[in-house]
Design a protein that fits this description.
mainly alpha
Length: 310
Amino acid sequence: MKIISWIDKAIDFMSIPRHQVGMKLVRILVGIIMLYIYSVNYGQRFFLFGPEGIFPDSNLFSLFHVDSPLVFNILYHVAILAALCFTIGWGGRIIVLVNFLFFWSWTSVSLLIGDGGDNLLRVMFPYLIFTDLLGKLDRKPGTLWKKALGILHNFGWMAVILQLCYVYFTAGLMKIQGGMWQDGTALYYILQVDEFRNPLFSSIIVNHPWISVAGSYVTIFFQIAFPFLILYGRVKPFVIAVSIMFHLGIWVFMNLPSFSLVMIAFELPLLSDAFYHKAFGMIRYRWSQLKGKRFVLSTDKKQTVNNEVS
């Protein structure tokens, strides 16, 4: 009987959905990323991906492998509509599955134009199907079905985090084997490639070699250490903050927007719901204080004007 009681308690513990706020933020950011990707390629969709586009049909599954331009155009607009519904949180798990199929289809016909973010999102999407992206699951013990959904949500969340850690760790290990990363010149040579060069900002690193050396070594250390640093609760928020700045730097200096946003999106579930509730509470408190000060200032100003008039 004790064993059965322990099993019941273990199931109840595992079925409590966690990190729901972070997963909701993932949904919003991923939806924005998909809308961005679809929109920037909208004007040239027929030229690139249509039935007579320049990219030949691959053997990969794709809903866009059709012979009719009209059908292709309808499917492309349905994909945009599905991404919009996903962003605003309409449609539940069905809309997550629909977006997975459409985004997989898009990446299958655009293998040569992504910046890496599309590949990572393609890998992460199956995990998102299991998670509660709307934050509707109750944390209180419920029916067997609710417990199953809670366990699936936690499984999907853990899969996302493990995949993220795998990406960081393997990227760091691969870099440490490269001669350019070892001598600190990797960033300098990367920014010589037109595809990874932002004309407005890349020259800052190119013209200051010490930034390239420091950035190369810090990048390797941070990527290898990331899976271990996030194990410490007090350090985790600072690690996430540094990582967000790191990827914003990649966006600015290397002109990789979707890759940077995808990495940032999947780091947000690392922080607990309690952290987000506390942070949002502080923001609301500061905002209310600011509005209160504005109201007092406007009231004092009106009183001063009335006194001068009288």
